């Protein structure tokens, strides 16, 4: 897994729907449906009727999407299961966060259109109205969201720490927008049931924001570890080992945690896959030097404090519907596979595993010697090392031909986003997309 952060406005990635999305749309759609059922459209023109419908759907849909996006950001463990992994959950968080802004902008636009037949050009005054606290709060929230959208599109190379701080503003904008909705009276006018539904959902979103963003370290306990060793390996890879100061984190091979290095200027939490085996009290991480945070790892020293949150992730090799497993690792993507392979010693039964370990050259294959030793002790585990500069990258079509078909294999992928995209496309072509498991994070 590659260290990652996802942005609300990052909409260039495909969204793959899962049970979590169906539950999300149900939660989001209930208030608008409740309003449509109970609203009296009598005496209104067709233009007014359509404008009001769009305005209310924009208001209820936008507010509930915004609230749900904040709730998803809490990284509750149940979302791992509903969406098939934390990366997919963040995709949903990004999806609903993005479209909540669209709907919230539609709300005042549609209201303006609905008022034009009565007020004419005077309907435009609502965009700069200061005659009520409710309207002022609505403008602050709306213009703040628009400003955030503009900033997030233009600030592509912003540091992670800066983005996190700016991202927290969204929580305050939601609270301001919710106050606008309840003070304006439109929520209460819908029905008592809708009012309480929106109040509970808004309360949960606010509590999640306070708990996981404003007071995360205070209200969301973390594990305290200290650095036992730091090594710089060939290929720009850091080998970092941590020992617990108090509690030991309980994880499954393939999972990841969020690390915060207290001694570094950029001390926010970043996700990294665990390389340690299941029963190891020491945590080991192999981290590729890719951005501002990893470039500062040269400042790390033994004894320094590291805070840990987790574990997270559904990349846990628990597919029971296939007799065999095919693991494909690209470069630093070997980390979760190494964790599972190291755990074979303590596992009574496991399926036949074929690991394809791809690196640019032999110097970057830092884990191969240990994996080679594991395969001599733990059958039927087999590892094949492929150097891309010499042999190229093997496609799923090549592997299907080599293994006589892949229908019996659960396929696990971990590596750079470009590699994942290629293999997922090939899996679609072979009709085995549902057999593929992966988690994707990207961080600059």
In words, what does this structure look like?
This protein has 444 residues and is α/β, with parallel strands linked by helices. The protein is built from 16 helices and 11 strands. It has helices spanning 19-38, 46-72, 77-83, 86-119, 133-154, 160-167, 169-184, 186-190, 192-214, 216-219, 292-295, 335-343, 368-377, 388-391, 396-403, 417-430; strands at 223-233, 237-244, 256-261, 270-273, 283-288, 305-312, 324-330, 352-359, 381-387, 409-414, 436-438. The strands form 2 sheets. A 6-stranded antiparallel beta sheet has the order 4-3-6-1-2-5, with no helix packed on it. It has a 5-stranded parallel beta sheet with strand order 9-8-7-10-11, with helices on both faces. Helix 16 (417-430) links the parallel strand 10 and strand 11. Helix 2 packs across helix 7, helix 5 (133-154) packs antiparallel against helix 7 and helix 7 runs antiparallel to helix 9 (192-214). The longest helix is centred in the first third of the chain and has 34 residues, at 86-119. The chain is elongated and about 80 Å long. The relative contact order is 0.11. The model is unreliable at 1-13 (pLDDT under 50).
């Amino acid at each position: 897994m590659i260290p990652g952060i996802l942005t609300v406005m990052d909409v260039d990635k495909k969204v793959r729907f899962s049970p979590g999305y169906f539950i999300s749309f149900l939660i989001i759609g209930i208030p608008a449906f409740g309003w449509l059922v109970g609203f009296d459209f009598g005496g209104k023109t067709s233009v007014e009727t359509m404008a009001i419908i769009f305005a209310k759907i924009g208001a209820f849909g936008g507010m509930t999407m915004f609230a749900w996006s904040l709730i998803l950001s809490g990284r509750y463990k149940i979302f791992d299961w509903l969406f098939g992994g934390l990366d997919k959950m963040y995709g949903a968080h990004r999806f609903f966060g993005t479209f909540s802004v669209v709907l919230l902008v539609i709300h005042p636009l549609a209201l303006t259109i609905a008022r034009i037949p009565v007020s004419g050009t005077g309907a435009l005054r609502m965009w700069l109205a200061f005659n009520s606290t409710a309207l002022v709060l609505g403008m602050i929230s709306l213009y703040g969201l628009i400003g955030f959208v503009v900033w997030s599109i233009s600030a592509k190379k912003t540091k992670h720490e800066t983005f996190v701080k700016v991202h927290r503003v969204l929580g305050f904008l939601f609270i301001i927008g919710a106050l606008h909705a309840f003070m304006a009276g439109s929520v209460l006018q819908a029905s008592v049931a809708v009012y309480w539904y929106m109040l509970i959902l808004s309360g949960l979103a606010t509590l999640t924001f306070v708990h996981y963003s404003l007071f995360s370290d205070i209200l969301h306990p973390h594990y305290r570890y200290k650095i036992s060793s730091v090594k710089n390996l060939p290929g720009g890879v850091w080998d970092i080992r941590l020992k617990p100061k108090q509690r030991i984190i309980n994880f499954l091979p393939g999972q990841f945690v969020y690390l915060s290095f207290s001694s570094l200027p950029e001390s926010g939490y970043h996700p990294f896959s665990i390389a340690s085996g299941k029963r190891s009290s020491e945590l080991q991480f192999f981290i590729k030097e890719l951005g501002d945070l990893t470039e500062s790892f040269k400042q790390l020293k033994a004894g320094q404090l590291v805070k840990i949150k987790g574990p997270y992730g559904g990349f846990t090799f628990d597919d029971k519907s296939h007799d065999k497993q095919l693991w494909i690792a690209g470069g630093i993507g070997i980390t979760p596979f190494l964790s599972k392979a190291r755990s074979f010693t303590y596992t009574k039964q496991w399926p036949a595993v074929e690991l394809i370990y791809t690196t640019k050259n032999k110097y970057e294959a830092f884990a191969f010697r240990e994996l080679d030793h594991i395969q001599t002790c733990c059958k039927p585990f087999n590892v094949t090392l492929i150097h891309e500069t010499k042999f190229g990258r093997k496609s799923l079509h090549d592997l299907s031909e080599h293994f006589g078909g892949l229908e019996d294999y659960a396929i696990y992928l971990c590596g750079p986003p470009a590699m994942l995209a290629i293999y997922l496309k090939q899996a679609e072509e072979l009709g085995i997309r549902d057999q593929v498991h992966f988690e994707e994070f990207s961080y600059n």
